[in-house]
Design brief:
Pfam families: FdtA. The chain is mostly beta strands and 138 residues long. The protein has 2 helices and 10 strands, in the order αββββββββββα. It has a single domain (3-13, 27-133), classed as Jelly Rolls, CATH 2.60.120.10.
Length: 138
Protein backbone atom coordinates (compact mmCIF):
# COMPACT_ATOMS: atom_id res chain seq x y z
CA UNK A 1 0.00 0.00 0.00
CA UNK A 2 1.31 3.45 -0.93
CA UNK A 3 1.50 6.15 1.77
CA UNK A 4 -0.86 8.20 -0.41
CA UNK A 5 -3.48 5.46 -0.01
CA UNK A 6 -3.41 6.05 3.76
CA UNK A 7 -4.24 9.77 3.46
CA UNK A 8 -7.79 10.49 4.55
CA UNK A 9 -10.15 13.16 5.78
CA UNK A 10 -10.98 12.70 9.45
CA UNK A 11 -14.37 13.94 10.60
CA UNK A 12 -13.76 15.69 13.92
CA UNK A 13 -16.45 16.09 16.59
CA UNK A 14 -18.64 19.13 16.10
CA UNK A 15 -20.84 20.52 18.83
CA UNK A 16 -23.31 22.92 17.22
CA UNK A 17 -24.75 25.71 19.30
CA UNK A 18 -26.55 28.94 18.35
CA UNK A 19 -23.87 30.80 20.34
CA UNK A 20 -21.09 29.31 18.20
CA UNK A 21 -19.78 25.87 17.32
CA UNK A 22 -17.04 23.89 19.04
CA UNK A 23 -14.70 21.20 17.73
CA UNK A 24 -12.23 19.30 19.87
CA UNK A 25 -9.47 16.79 19.18
CA UNK A 26 -8.12 14.11 21.50
CA UNK A 27 -4.92 12.23 20.64
CA UNK A 28 -5.36 8.51 19.93
CA UNK A 29 -9.12 9.11 20.00
CA UNK A 30 -9.85 11.36 17.01
CA UNK A 31 -6.41 11.16 15.38
CA UNK A 32 -4.41 7.92 14.98
CA UNK A 33 -1.50 9.03 17.19
CA UNK A 34 -0.63 10.68 20.47
CA UNK A 35 -0.24 14.42 19.83
CA UNK A 36 3.29 15.57 20.73
CA UNK A 37 3.29 19.01 19.08
CA UNK A 38 0.76 21.58 17.86
CA UNK A 39 1.56 24.54 15.64
CA UNK A 40 -0.25 26.78 13.19
CA UNK A 41 0.42 28.78 10.06
CA UNK A 42 -1.24 32.17 9.63
CA UNK A 43 -0.81 35.48 7.80
CA UNK A 44 0.41 33.60 4.72
CA UNK A 45 0.72 36.20 1.94
CA UNK A 46 -1.30 35.64 -1.24
CA UNK A 47 0.51 33.44 -3.74
CA UNK A 48 2.89 31.92 -1.17
CA UNK A 49 3.40 28.18 -0.77
CA UNK A 50 4.23 26.48 2.54
CA UNK A 51 5.46 22.97 3.18
CA UNK A 52 7.76 21.73 0.45
CA UNK A 53 9.01 18.79 2.48
CA UNK A 54 8.30 15.25 3.68
CA UNK A 55 8.89 13.48 6.99
CA UNK A 56 10.74 10.25 7.65
CA UNK A 57 8.71 9.27 10.74
CA UNK A 58 6.31 12.07 11.68
CA UNK A 59 2.57 11.78 11.11
CA UNK A 60 0.32 14.86 10.97
CA UNK A 61 -3.25 16.03 10.83
CA UNK A 62 -3.83 19.36 9.07
CA UNK A 63 -6.94 21.42 9.84
CA UNK A 64 -8.20 24.62 8.23
CA UNK A 65 -9.09 26.26 11.55
CA UNK A 66 -10.12 29.35 9.56
CA UNK A 67 -10.43 30.02 5.85
CA UNK A 68 -9.18 27.56 3.26
CA UNK A 69 -6.10 26.23 1.49
CA UNK A 70 -5.08 23.33 -0.74
CA UNK A 71 -2.74 20.51 0.24
CA UNK A 72 -0.84 18.94 -2.66
CA UNK A 73 0.52 15.49 -1.77
CA UNK A 74 3.07 13.38 -3.62
CA UNK A 75 4.33 9.88 -2.74
CA UNK A 76 6.73 9.65 -5.70
CA UNK A 77 4.24 7.69 -7.79
CA UNK A 78 1.11 9.82 -7.74
CA UNK A 79 -0.14 13.26 -6.68
CA UNK A 80 -3.40 14.22 -5.02
CA UNK A 81 -4.79 17.59 -4.00
CA UNK A 82 -7.15 18.19 -1.09
CA UNK A 83 -9.07 21.38 -0.37
CA UNK A 84 -9.38 22.04 3.35
CA UNK A 85 -12.10 24.55 4.23
CA UNK A 86 -13.98 23.16 7.24
CA UNK A 87 -12.66 23.45 10.82
CA UNK A 88 -14.18 20.05 11.68
CA UNK A 89 -12.26 18.17 8.96
CA UNK A 90 -8.68 17.04 9.50
CA UNK A 91 -6.43 15.68 6.76
CA UNK A 92 -4.35 12.75 8.03
CA UNK A 93 -0.86 12.54 6.53
CA UNK A 94 1.23 9.43 7.22
CA UNK A 95 5.03 9.46 7.02
CA UNK A 96 6.85 9.65 3.67
CA UNK A 97 4.45 12.02 1.87
CA UNK A 98 5.79 15.15 0.18
CA UNK A 99 3.45 18.05 0.91
CA UNK A 100 2.92 21.58 -0.30
CA UNK A 101 0.26 23.96 0.98
CA UNK A 102 -1.00 26.60 -1.42
CA UNK A 103 -3.87 28.89 -2.38
CA UNK A 104 -4.42 30.21 1.14
CA UNK A 105 -7.52 32.37 1.47
CA UNK A 106 -7.26 35.69 3.27
CA UNK A 107 -7.23 35.18 7.03
CA UNK A 108 -6.74 31.43 6.83
CA UNK A 109 -5.16 29.45 9.65
CA UNK A 110 -3.65 25.98 9.17
CA UNK A 111 -3.60 24.09 12.46
CA UNK A 112 -1.17 21.14 12.53
CA UNK A 113 -1.23 18.24 14.99
CA UNK A 114 2.02 16.27 14.96
CA UNK A 115 2.96 12.83 16.30
CA UNK A 116 6.52 13.85 17.24
CA UNK A 117 8.37 16.81 18.65
CA UNK A 118 10.37 18.91 16.20
CA UNK A 119 13.48 17.17 14.87
CA UNK A 120 15.25 18.60 11.82
CA UNK A 121 16.71 15.15 11.05
CA UNK A 122 13.16 13.89 10.37
CA UNK A 123 12.72 16.24 7.39
CA UNK A 124 13.31 15.65 3.71
CA UNK A 125 13.73 19.15 2.31
CA UNK A 126 15.15 18.08 -1.06
CA UNK A 127 12.60 16.41 -3.36
CA UNK A 128 15.21 14.43 -5.33
CA UNK A 129 16.67 12.99 -2.11
CA UNK A 130 13.15 12.04 -0.98
CA UNK A 131 12.44 10.30 -4.30
CA UNK A 132 15.75 8.39 -4.21
CA UNK A 133 15.26 7.25 -0.60
CA UNK A 134 11.76 5.91 -1.20
CA UNK A 135 12.94 3.98 -4.27
CA UNK A 136 11.49 6.08 -7.08
CA UNK A 137 13.35 7.72 -9.94
CA UNK A 138 13.25 11.55 -10.15
Amino acid sequence: MSPLDQVRIIQLPRVQDPRGNLTFVEGEQHVPFDIKRVYYLYDVPGGETRGGHAHRDLEQVLIAASGSFEVVLDDGRARRTFLLNRPYHGLYLPRLIWRELENFSSGSVCLVLASLRYDEADYYRDYDEFIRDIGCQP
